[in-house]
Structures are given as C-alpha cells and as structure tokens.
Design goal:
- Helix content is 67%, strand content 3%.
- The protein is globular, with a radius of gyration of 21 Å.
Length: 389
C-alpha cells in the first residue's frame, strides 16, 4: 500500500481540548533539549574568543537564545495555521525561496562567506536562503504529488507526477549548486530521494535518482562548478594525513578534541582544544566537538539520542498523517534532519567529508534555527490534524 493512500481515519476527540494538549510533547522536549545543550556548547566555544565577541562573553549565548525564541514563534505559527492555508502558502514559500537564491547570486547583494556566496547581508543580520530552500523543496514536491494524486484519484504517483516534482526541486538545487554549497545540495538530494521513495513509484526510480545524482556530480566537477577547496575536502576525507596543517586541519583537530573527552568529558568550559581555539568554526559547523571534548561520550551520546527521538516522532507523525501531503512533508523533514545530523556529526568524526552543514538546533545560526523550527511547526501541524474529527 502506498503512503499516498489514507491508512486510517483520525481519532475522534472526546472533548474540545486545546491544541496545546494534543501537541507531540516528546518532539517538543527533544527540540528544546537540543537547543538548550546547543546554547551551552556555543557559549563555551565563544566566551573566551574576543575576536568574535568584542569582549562580551555572553554575546553568542544571547544571540542563540534570541534566534530560538524567534524560531519558536515561527514554529507555533506554522503549527496553528489551518492545513488548507498551509497548502495555499506552499507555492508562496517556494517562490520566495527561489527569489532569495537568485538574489544571493547577484553581485553586491549576496555576501561571500567561507568561499560560498550563500548569504544576503542585512543591516541587523545575515540571511541564508538555502536553509529555507530545504523547506521549500519539501512542501513544493509534497504539494504537487499530493494534488496530482487527489485529482486523478490514484493511490500511487505516476511517472509524470514524479518527473514534475523533481523538476520543481531541481530549480533550487541548481541555484544552490551555483553558490556553490555542496552540503545543502546533498541535503536537498536526500529530501528528494525520501519523498520519491514513499510516493509509490516503482523501485527503478530510486536507482535512476542515484544514477542521475552521480552523473550530475561528475559533470559539476568537469565544468569546475565546485571550488578547488571543496574537492580537496573530499580527498582530505579519504586521507586526512595528506595535509594536516592545511585542508585536513579541521578534521584532525576535531578528532583530537573528541578523543580528549573520554567517557565523562573534561567539563563544560574546560576543554583544552575548545578553550584554546584549536578547532575552527567550533560554534557553527564543529559544535559537536565541544560536546565530545567537554561532555564526553555521555554528552555526545545524549545529543545523538535526542536526534533519534526527534526522527522517531517525525516518522510516527508521517505514518499517522491524514493525507498524502502531510505524510510527504513529514517524510521530507525526517530525511532532512536525519541526513544533516549524520553528515555534521560524521564530518567531526572523520567518517564524512567536511561540507559546512550546521547541526540542527545545536549549531549557531539564525537561518538554520528558523528553518528547522518552521519544519518542526509543520510536523506539529500534521500531528494536530491527525487528532481532528
């Protein structure tokens, strides 16, 4: 049976209890716990670095907390929005995301940070449109596949439906590749793969997507779309010892930091690698190394457990969703969080290439936090709808 087929009717409510009562509180607690841990790790990684804080040791702690509060407001709004309006707003979100990705590529508008033109610099903050592109691809593909299935009264998506959905997703993917932001392209690819996988198409589509992704990657290398440092990261992943003071420096220092932690860690604010700033970008891309060094195996394991908890609740929401749109959106969000968490943690351990992806809810970054919490709000929206009569 395809996930496009309704699997059961929603449970009737015994009374008119509020949406607050029916929220998936396990999911909420998991996200809150990750964000709280992230605040402490970011604080530890930055409070001594005056080049970042200008002497204010609470600078990034306050910023991260503020980002979370703003993101929480967005999540609540997404959770309480009528599901019909969510469908109406999906094309608006997609169009706004594509526009943002185009503006990033315009000289004088897009800002280059760490080699990628991925940010729009505003007077009060930087916005990274590619973070919202993840959400846009999810709702865009889900809406198109669901609408086609409902209109034609089909249980499984047709080949033409999947082709159109992939075409919708391909626009943001190509724009992100031009920045170039290889990590986000990989996340978008995992989202597309997951949504197509549960849409009821033949298995040959999965093989076709993997083959196409491989060919596109090879073509991008041949056309020099990817920067030299991005290609070097892959060779450093294969052999970190080839340039320990250059491209392999981040990975080597990250592994040393995590190895220093042992089982119980060196204590928050006491990690030698962290407090001496040996690991670059430690409050963003390499925040997991702070957990490994200062909180040890137990603290790092707790972060992995919380992600597993969030993914479990997301899958549960997908299975119990009332309609195809909800199931596809929930599946896309789960694929996003799963791949990005695995890639971020994996690159700190040296089992995945360095791509510059943040750890959801833990790494510092406003755009990442806003997009992630909006996705959680959509999961709650789908969950709440499954409890409506």
């Amino acid at each position: 049976m395809s996930l496009l087929t309704p699997i059961r009717q929603a449970r009737p409510r015994a009374d008119r209890r509020s949406a607050l009562w029916h929220a998936d509180w396990v999911l909420v607690i998991g996200v809150l716990a990750l964000s709280a841990i992230g605040s402490l790790l970011i604080w530890s990684a930055t409070y001594r670095r005056t080049s970042l804080t200008d002497g204010n040791e609470y600078e990034f702690l306050v910023r991260h907390a503020l980002n979370f509060v703003i993101g929480l407001v967005l999540a609540i709004g997404a959770a309480l929005t009528d599901h019909r309006r969510v469908r109406i707003l999906a094309p608006v979100l997609y169009a706004a995301s594509v526009l943002g990705l185009i503006l990033v590529l315009v000289p004088g508008v897009g800002a280059v940070i760490n080699g990628s033109r991925s940010w729009i610099q505003l007077p009060w903050m930087s916005v990274q449109p590619s973070e919202f592109a993840k959400l846009a691809v999810i709702v865009g593909m889900a809406l198109l596949i669901a609408e086609k299935g409902e209109t034609n009264h089909r249980e499984n998506a047709r080949t033409i439906d999947i082709a159109q959905a992939i075409a919708v997703a391909a626009v943001p993917v190509l724009l992100v590749m031009l920045q170039p932001d290889l990590g986000t392209v990989m996340v978008l690819g995992s989202i597309m793969f997951g949504i197509v996988a549960v849409s009821g198409v033949p298995k040959r589509w999965m093989l076709g997507i993997v083959t196409a992704a491989t060919l596109i990657g090879a073509l991008a290398i041949q056309l020099n779309v990817l920067k030299e440092y991005q290609l070097a990261r892959f060779t450093a992943f294969a052999d970190p010892s080839q340039d320990p003071q250059g491209i392999g420096y981040n990975v080597n220092q990250a592994r040393i930091a995590i190895g220093n932690g042992g089982v119980f860690g060196q204590g928050l604010f006491h990690g030698s690698q962290t407090q001496n700033a040996f690991v670059p970008e430690q409050h963003t891309d390499f925040v997991f190394t702070v957990a490994g060094e200062e909180l040890g195996l137990i603290g790092a394991g707790a972060i992995i457990f919380l992600f597993a908890l969030i993914l479990w609740r997301g899958l549960r929401i997908a299975v119990n969703a009332r309609d195809a749109f909800g199931r596809l959106v929930a599946t896309g969000v789960v694929c996003w969080f799963a791949f990005q968490a695995f890639e971020n943690i994996g690159m700190t351990l040296g089992i995945m290439p360095v791509t510059g992806l943040p750890l959801p809810f833990v790494s510092y970054g406003g755009s990442s936090m806003f997009a992630g919490l909006l996705a959680v709000g959509l999961l709650q929206n789908i969950h709440l709808r499954s409890h409506q009569v």
